[in-house]
Amino acid sequence: MSKTPKILIYTDGGSRGNPGPAACAAVVQSADDNQTLIEEGKFLGRATNNVAEYEGVLLGMDLARRLGVRQIEIRSDSELLVRQLMGQYRVKNPGLKPLYDRVREGLGDFDAVEVCHVRREQNVEADRLVNETLDAQRKGGSAPPSGRRTPDSGRGGPFRLK
Questions:
Q1: Cα separation of 79 and 119, whole Å?
Q2: What is 6-149's CATH superfamily?
Q3: What is the Cα 85 distance to its own chain's centre?
Q4: CA dihedral 142, 144, 145, 148 (to 10 degrees)
Q5: What's the alpha-carbon Rg for the chain, to the nearest Å?
Q6: pLDDT per residue over 47-98, tens digit each?
Q7: pLDDT band, very low/low/confident/very high, at 156 (cuts 50, 70, 90)
């Protein structure tokens, strides 16, 4: 089995109103040089901020699977989400429990997983993408380029998603 590189998955979720129009985002970077490999924003419809945070983790894990990566470090500025995933807080909200279960089950797809809380200032790219996705939806559009971007979009970069 070949060793795959570790990636960093910055995730975020937000709603305008709680609940309200919501979106999530994931920015996947190489752990070696912090180069963004792929990022994606997703409009969720009406949801709470915490639901959007969990959806961001699910989106990031999906991107990692598409890249064939086996070692991930999930970074989120949601202390609640991180503490729940680490088993430090119980998931009391019945609306979050199915999402929590999906994330926990999905983590089993990877050989090595770390979950880390980061300060908001360290999560600006994922936050930016959440807001761009919400702004685009409000204006009647969709998220930027089908919600999916790579740093080399249109220039033949190392990753191509169809």
A1: 9
A2: Ribonuclease H-like superfamily/Ribonuclease H (3.30.420.10)
A3: 14
A4: -110
A5: 15
A6: 999 999 999 999 999 999 999 999 999 999 999 999 999 999 999 999 999 9
A7: very low
Rounded-to-integer distance, Cα 123 and Cα 95, Å: 25
Query: Structure tokens of 94?
Result: 């019945």
- pLDDT for position 149: 57
Which secondary-structure segment (H or E) carries 97?
helix 97-107
Quickly state the pLDDT bin for 139 (edges 50, 70, 90): confident
Helix (H) or strand (E) holding 126: helix 124-138
Instruction: Pick the range with the lowest mean pLDDT from 14-18, 21-25, 120-124, 152-156.
Output: 152-156
Strands 148-149 and 36-47: antiparallel
Q: How many CA atoms lie within 13 A of 162 on its CB side?
A: 0
C-alpha atoms less than 13 angstroms from C-alpha of 112 in its C-beta half-sphere: 10
Looking at the chain, which runs of residues are DSSP E strands?
6-15, 20-30, 36-47, 71-76, 112-117, 148-149
Structural domain spans, the chain? 6-149
